[in-house]
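Following up on my earlier thread - several people asked me to post the actual chain instead of describing it. Fair enough. Here it is, all 463 residues.
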Amino acid sequence: MCSQVIEVRSDGTRPLELLEREITTLASQIHAATCRWLELVAEYDAREGWAQWGCRSCAHWVSWQCGIAPGPAREHVRVARRLQELPLIRAAFREGELSFSKVRALTRVENVEREADLLDLARHATASQLELLLRAYRGVVAAERAAAGGRRERWLAVEHADDGSLLLRGRFPAEEGALVLAALRAAEDALAEQDVPAGTPQATAGEPDAGVPAETPEPTAGEPGAGVPAGTPRAAPAEARGDALLAIADAYLAGDRGARTGGDRYQVIVHVDTPALAGEGDSRRCGLDDDTPLAAATARRLACDASVIQILERDGVPLRIGRKTRSIPPALRRALASRDGGCRFPGCGSRRFVDAHHIEHWAHGGKTDLDNLVQLCGAHHRLLHEGGYSIRRLPGGDLSFRRPDGRAIPRCPRPPGGRAVPLDRPRRPDACVPLSHDRLDLELGVAAVLAFAPPVSGEPPGV
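Reply from S.P.:
Thanks for posting it. Predicted structure:
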């Protein structure tokens, strides 16, 4: 084993050249390790190992087990899948020649026919140059697809800034964007008629006023406010559009179309007798209104959070029909939502379309109170009723989830830990050679990428 001589200055510091070499060498090693990690993720995803933990997807499992936020976890899984189709790029990534930033950009290129040329371009471009180049390439591909009759890309990215404020950025085809702008203008006009001052929040009552910050980040080219010096307050039209968007959201939610849960969502009629609902003995009836049979476990799941009508029968003849009641009263549902804030299954946290689950079903004598209720998304609610998973509340109030095989599902898995390892390969000298010190020729670069990966007609692939 070769010994390594570390030069130290008289003041106890190492020369900057040595420090730079160690930083860049470790960066290459991180790139190589990331590639190996993604290869393992791709194999785990292909074998659907995440399903045995009750996760909804591989990205859900990666977020939960590896401590990665859901958005980046989805992006890592996407890159892992796409790398299986790009052997040359994967090999360079495995050797530490390409960073994850570069690989992430490369995996968004469709229909790669000349992978070696695309890889050579990536080797001789900085990460920022490559990102800019491939973003322009995707714009050209989207425009050509639209010209050929295909549907333009539509997306809306949502993220939070460090101070908790919400950032929105999206893209809509021209005609659909016109629809969005028309709705915003209509809301602006309505607010103007009400004489609402610009910048006044229109969200739910009782929220504290969120004043406009003195300084906002400079918008990128093409965005409203581009070219305005930093520190300049936002223009009134931009504030008015923000007010209009809040008004649209408030009006939509006021119609209760955006917060449907439990009994509001299930508009099917299920007939089930008491033994089936309680899971006791044979059932004479358990099915839909059109006599379609239904599994007793499914009926119990639907009855967990639904509207219920009790009918007393004798020999199939109704003797008394009770009133329609909600299994979870509205006030209790609000308290439950305030306490749980979304699905409580480990690693999930979904807030949309969640059900109120009885830990001990009310058909078994369980109480309909906060201590016996928990919020679950539809997928995990189904797992608990029909998938063999179980839940119980511990004496201290914590929840314990278990797989069908009895293994506990930890709420927050502890990573196995790692350690620094000796460097096993030198950094390639050409791993990050800048494309040029001159201004990037974007038109020429995009033309080259189009030659390496010509656009195809039809809808974009779901990557």
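Residues 16-46 form the longest helix (31 residues). That should answer part of your original question.
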